[in-house]
Amino acid sequence: MEAQLRAGIAIYNAGATHAAHDAWEDVWLDLSEGTNDERLLHGLIQFTAAVHHAHNRNWSGAVGLAESGREYLSGVPSTYRGVDLSVVTDYLQGLQTDPERIERAGPPALSYNDRRLSAADLELDAITIAAAVLAEEFDRYDETVIDAAADYAREEVDGSQTQFIGLLTTFVDESTHRGIVYDRLAAQVERRQRKERDVAGLFDPADEE
């Protein structure tokens, strides 16, 4: 759960408020109803949905989600699993009363262990989760490219090279230049795959006389 929790927070803080819930949803569905873990993820999902609806000026939807989000988080400690929930519940209360406030002041960042979490703060498993979620969210990106990059990044963990780890991290964090970063990532994946095909061809029995 920890990797998914942190991945979703980093996605949200990078500005992809709608996508953030996808990092949490599968874990949340498997949790026992009413536990603090379940209420935490349910409340965060409602929070990001409320923000999304408010951004789209669906005021009634935002109000309803803000109310239910506060209810889910009401029984959870104000800081739980490292997440500062007080800023979340305070903002939900304000959004429930005045959803148009989002046009005057944006939603708060989510903090984890007293810091604004980004992909640069994550372990590789959370980075790959976040990158996969963003690839699924936006049609611009090919999920198979991100999956391949994640495999290559895992190969880098115990080595001196961090090319794919760095590009995946930047892909998550840099919302403004994400498309450019993706193009670089896709080019590196294609280059690596081409090398693998070339090496495999050297040992292809069909080429042996």
TrEMBL record:
Entries under Pfam families matching the protein: DUF309 (PF03745)
Cited SUPFAM superfamilies: TTHA0068-like
PANTHER family referenced in this protein's UniProt entry, alphabetically: EXPRESSED PROTEIN
Residues spanning the membrane: none
Name listed for the protein in its UniProt record: DUF309 domain-containing protein
